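Researcher: Let's run the pair from yesterday's discussion. Sequence first, then tokens, for each.
Model: Starting with the first of the pair.
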Amino acid sequence: MTGVTGVTDVLVVAPHPDDDVIGCGGSIAKHVRDGARVTVVIVIGRERSALDDAVSDAEFAAETEAAAKALGVHRCIRFEEPSRDFALTRRVHLDLVRVLREVRPQVVYLPHDNDDDVEHRMVHQLTVEALWMAQSEFFQETGGRPMPAPRLVLGYEVWAPMARFQYAEDIGGQIETKVEAMRAYVSQLRHAAWDEGIRGLARYRGAVSAGSGHAEVFQVLSLGAAPAAGPAGGGRD
């Protein structure tokens, strides 16, 4: 799975609720299938719109929990940072360092570095910096020991499909689980047919990387172990 054997802990950092499902939901389900514990951190809280204003915060939280349950996520942590007022403060960096030092993941997922949404790019920057901080001997106020470097750090796509990717993961066995998790976000489907969109993108990525099937593709940001073979014809750079 994703080029690393013996994975016990995975951390997914998502800017907003449902970004984890869209970007790497199939890979999450695959990690769970293989026995890993997956922790998801959702950095920014809900942004209400006229299309879902009638949905209460409790109902929206239940959607998030249902999506996580569908994928088999071990724990979902919500920072509830303010949307559009989100700032890369020391506090939010330390919040993520605490999680990293507790989970000590072998694999980390985060938004790729050139996504169209500015908050996605900010969360990319946040995670890259927090990874360094969590491995250092500093920032002792977070508690815990410095964590070892993850063996694999992957950037996923949400708003802006990547022009170039270095790794493709076959999610043919997980595509229905991914779609089911997306459909748990009933309020978000009022904005766009995300369930159809993620199925179509996975089908396209499967065709490009392996000739058929369904896949998720990733930017390889750090590689600490030799990758196993991905799908035939699998990523390119």
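Model: Moving on to the second of the pair.
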Amino acid sequence: MAAERTAELADVRDRRDGHDGGGEKPDGAVVRDALGVGIAVGLSGFAFGVTSAGSGLTLLQTCVLSLLVFTGASQFALVGALAAGGGPFTAAAGALFLGVRNAFYGLRLSQLLALPRAVRPFAAQWVIDETAAVSLAQPTRRSARIGFVVTGLSLYLLWNLTTLLGALGAEAIGDTDAWGLDAAGPAVFLALLAPMLRTGTERTVAGLAVLLGLGLLPVLPAGVPVLVAALAAPAVLWARGRRSASRGDVPEEDR
């Protein structure tokens, strides 16, 4: 009886989270998509290795950053601030601000993946933009778990390997600023995000977030513009709700 109740509650949670199993996806397709993301983004670890070495960090420091921090935007923010002459504490603060977004990913993924408690501390290391995007795009909890694990594992291994190669090859490349390699990671993530913006509300949120992030970049410390840009979502939803309320109707889904 208890087992049946547990299964029933799991089904309710799946339906509530939009993962009702009605559009099941073959495991092979999930693995293929997850590997595609892991490989595409993992290769940009080479750019981080080169940029980090060019900013004055040692090979050991560069590799430890990728092993322990493992969130590309924060890593690039840290080495970028150091390269610009910022102090280590200021650079670390900017990287920490950027890393805060992963905590919000974790809140959503903890409900979706429902991993055993013993596994969660280890899984937390892989809660980043790419694993969140792949997991949330899946139709069932099973495929979300597969997507999370395959994306996280492939990306972690490849990111750290290419970080090492990039740091070792930094001297051969020369002036790292001239190559613009620090833009590789964000560019890949934007390419992954764009197809997911299907409704008018989502596109409005994304556009406002870009305006806030870029507009505030020259006047706020590193990392803070990204956090302010996160306010785009509640702002757009609030404005949409007010507009619907003034019309006296129930908001309809964007088409």
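Researcher: Give me one sentence on the second I can quote.
Model: The chain has 16 helices and no strands.
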